[in-house]
Structures are given as C-alpha cells and as structure tokens.
C-alpha cells in the first residue's frame, strides 16, 4: 500500500518547518512573509507527490469540517435530485462537500439524520423540513449552527428560507384553465399544513372564488403519500364522484403521476375529457402523449440562493443572521394537456 504523504514529509524534504509548509498549502505564504521561491518549491514538490490534505486533521486544527448536511424529502424525486446535484456542484466550488439524505417527510427520520450530521461535525445545514421538527431546527440554531430551509419553512422560526411563490403558481395555473374555457376545475393535494402545500391550496381557492366558482378539492391523507396505489385509488374515486370536472391541478409531481394513472384507468382523454396541470415539472412530463403542462420551479436559482444564504450564515456564525425569506417565481410550461379542443366528459 502506498504511503500517504504528510505535511511533515514535505517539510523534511524542503528543510523547513511543518508550519511553513502548512502556511504555503493554505495560501498564506505572503501573509507569513515566505519567499516566492520557497512557496514555489513547496507547491511543486506537493504536486509531484500528489499530496492531498487530511481533512480530519485539518478540521481538528480549524474547527471546520468543510461538510454541509443536506436533508431533502426524497433524493429520488426529480425536483430534490436536481437541487441536490446543483448544490453539490456549487458547494464543491467553495471547497465544501455535501452529505445528503432523505427524510421521507418523516419527523423521526429527520431527527435521527440531524443527530448523525451532528456526529459528523457538519458546518451547516440545508433542510427541506418535514412537519414536526421545529424544536430540532431551533436547537440547531441555538447551538450556533447555520441553517437554511428551502421548499417549505416554519413561520414561527427566525430562519433563512428559500422558497417559490406557490400561491401565485397555483393562481396562474387556474387562470390558464379559465382562459381556455374551463370552469369546473378540481385541485388534488395532500392533507398537510406545510407552507408550500398551504400556499398552493390558497392560490387555487382564491383564483376560483375571484370568478365566483366553487372549489372542488381532494386532500389525499398525508400518511398515504408514500403509497402510489392508494393515491391513485383516491384520485380515481374523486373523479368518479365529480363527473362535471373539466380540469384538474395536481399539487405535486407524484400526485400528477398518480392522477394520470387514474385518468387512464377511467379511459378519459387528456385534454378533451379532462385538462391537466402538474405542480413541479420533470423530464417525464414532456414525454407523455399528450405532453403534460406543468409549473416549473427554478431549480438553479433555488440552489444558488441556498448556497449564497448558507455561506452568509456561516460567515457570521455562531451569531445568526437576520431572518430572511427569498421568494422566487414559478414558470408555467404550457404543453398539450391543458388546452381542451372539445368538451365531452365520458364519466
């Protein structure tokens, strides 16, 4: 096994102190008045030996692990996978690594993961929080850890948050349906008090009430969110019970996917029997026939803001920065599923 090269090995070869080598490798040669010639020799020798710093030893010296803990609802979800990938790239550009894990929107899982991240001595946290972990987030902040919440947040906590305008996104989707002649418009969501779900429901309800239209809402039980078959059954029953529906807005991409299965099982034609829009775009929606209209979240901008906010928080740690909430717009990607050509509901 090849011997790992240490700072002491480089110092011995260069006939200088380990501190001198450390200053050079950490970019402090000028600050410590080390000659340009010696700086060049040390760097050249380190490159020649393919020297890599020992992160554990460095973290003990600096008190920083250069690791960020990231908790998402589900890393396999296209939205969270895209965010995690971009955040990892942006963090890497600043010499940080990302440890990420899925909470499945479960408070117990989230608490266990936060404890594991504490044991790993991460420097900061990026969290899409499940309901019920307000006290855990508060405790992290009281202990001086920088915390950024994204996608959803807790109104009662003074955190830095990065979200999209869920209210306006849902409102715009309903306006689109209305502009194309639909009046009987349903909304399929989760039975959840999370901020993103609450705002999407409020946006839908407001848009309907502004036109004196009656909302028609299905709230899938929160505990059934991880069981696609049960979601599909709920949506199928909802459509059968509401045969006058001309259009449906789905509050998440996985609800939309289950909804498409339910619509297909009832032999309804999209968009002529039922127009459809999903919240959260993904690559699969453009591959459906007909292609599915969706509200796209700005994943690149979300990721950039998350990293920007976290770096600002870490710069002031352990003192928390003032609470701030960055709100980004959604974009309605209009495809074939939301524009009806005829109205002939077969239910």
Automatic annotation (TrEMBL):
UniProt keyword list: DNA-binding, Transcription, Transcription regulation
One Pfam family from the record: LacI
Statement: the UniProt record of this protein carries the keyword ATP-binding: no
Alphabetical list of InterPro entries matching this protein: HTH_LacI (IPR000843), LacI/GalR-like_sensor (IPR046335), Lambda_DNA-bd_dom_sf (IPR010982), Peripla_BP_I (IPR028082)
GO molecular function list: DNA-binding transcription factor activity; transcription cis-regulatory region binding
Superkingdom of origin: Bacteria
HTH lacI-type domain ranges (all copies): 5-62
Keyword 4Fe-4S attached: no
Protein name: Substrate-binding domain-containing protein
Organism from which the protein derives: Chitinophaga tropicalis
